[in-house]
Amino acid sequence: MRFRPPHWLPWLGPLLAAGAGALAGEYWLGGGFWMVLAAALVCGFAPILAHRLWRRLHHRR
Length: 61
Hints:
74% helix, mainly alpha, 61 residues
């Protein structure tokens, strides 16, 4: 059975970025602006990178 990545996976990026930025601002504000920005960028790009990695590994087979 071949599993395909969900087509909506890359669209989770902005939602996760907003959530991570809000959580970082609420709980890790000691890091300031850069901590919030780093958390938002990492969590925002993670679904896009996961989708591309999944597709790349899937097409190799």
